[in-house]
Design brief:
- One of its GO terms (biological process) is carbohydrate metabolic process.
- This is Putative glucose-6-phosphate 1-epimerase.
- Keywords: Isomerase.
- The protein is mainly beta and 294 residues long.
- It has one domain: Beta-galactosidase, Chain A, domain 5, CATH 2.70.98.
- Helix content is 3%, strand content 45%.
- It is built from 2 helices and 24 strands.
- Strand 7 and strand 8 form a beta hairpin.
- The two termini are 20 Å apart.
Length: 294
């Protein structure tokens, strides 16, 4: 996503400005190491482009920037749950307005921190008190950390994901390794399956890989690069692409959009709210994804 043409609304530093696309304000980062964008709507990374490389993050050309719903593409923050185990699907964080807490920079890159706290709006959906921070480190690689703290006087349960859309030259040529062989197939009613060590897609995929390796690698031959994904604080890696029929059913994705992305997600998966991870009062959890290419 090219943010360089948007006029600056606010200049925060030599490397950080606030811009606006339609009705959504975006923290724009332009640094010698990389450029990036983080929408305050959803705490949503919409771009990351290392210097001299193609864009690493895919955004839908049809994404709707009116602030009414989650953005299609980028890195949606799915929290305090992942999936359709409650309403709204994937939780409320990805469609909430986050606040810019701080930014700092040096020769290696820029770090931006956003915050989201409980409110009357969140209590109407989920009755718990929390403090969520999204820490985005824009360097030669991108590191996104969702830091959640239980500020309540009782324990609560949660799940979540950093739902990264990777930008690819051609999904049919891409090969993925490191996701592990065991997966829950959402297209087969949650059936537990075993697959090979190399994944090359010819159709839609929606899988929760339960034993991913420390590093997942996506070969992207069109752009002559290998994308590396390292996750922490997760229990699984979700891989998703809707393919042609799925893309055609989405108002915010072009019919051809599925051809140039693959979602590889750092996921804390739970089949229900009651089976989520427990966080005690004062306890903190970090869900992290680091993305790089060479």
């Amino acid at each position: 996503m090219n943010l360089t043409q948007l006029p600056a609304l606010t200049v925060l530093s030599d490397n950080v400005t606030i811009v606006e696309k339609d009705k959504v304000k975006i923290v724009r980062i332009i640094h010698d190491k990389a450029t990036a964008g983080i929408a305050l709507h959803g705490g949503h990374v919409v771009s990351f482009q290392p210097a001299g490389q193609p864009e690493l993050i895919w955004m839908s050309e049809e994404a709707i920037f009116d602030g009414s719903a989650a953005l299609r593409g980028g890195i949606p923050v799915c929290w305090p749950w992942f999936g359709r185990i409650a309403a709204p699907a994937h939780g409320f964080a990805r469609s909430s307005q986050w606040q810019l807490i701080e930014h700092r920079e040096n020769e290696q890159g820029v770090i931006v921190e956003l915050g989201l706290c409980d409110s009357e709006e969140t209590h109407a959906i989920w009755p718990n008190k929390f403090d969520a921070r999204l820490i985005v480190e824009v360097k030669e690689q991108l590191t996104v950390t969702l830091k959640v703290t239980n500020t309540d006087d009782k324990a609560w349960l949660f799940s979540g994901a950093l739902h990264t859309y990777l930008n690819l030259g051609d999904i049919t040529q891409a090969e993925t390794k490191g996701m592990g062989s065991e997966y829950i197939d959402s297209l087969q009613s949650g059936k537990l399956c075993t697959g090979g060590e190399v994944l090359k897609l010819t159709d839609t995929i929606d899988r929760v890989y339960t034993k991913p390796e420390a590093e997942i690698r996506v070969q992207d031959p069109v752009f002559s690069r290998t994308i590396k994904i390292e996750n922490e604080g997760h229990n699984s890696a979700v891989l998703w692409n809707p393919w042609a029929a799925g893309a055609q059913s989405m108002a915010d994705m072009s019919d051809e959009g599925y051809k140039t992305f693959l979602c590889v997600e750092s996921t804390l998966h739970a089949p229900s709210l009651e089976q989520g991870k427990q966080l005690m009062p004062g306890e903190v959890h970090h869900l992290v994804t680091t993305i790089s290419a060479n």
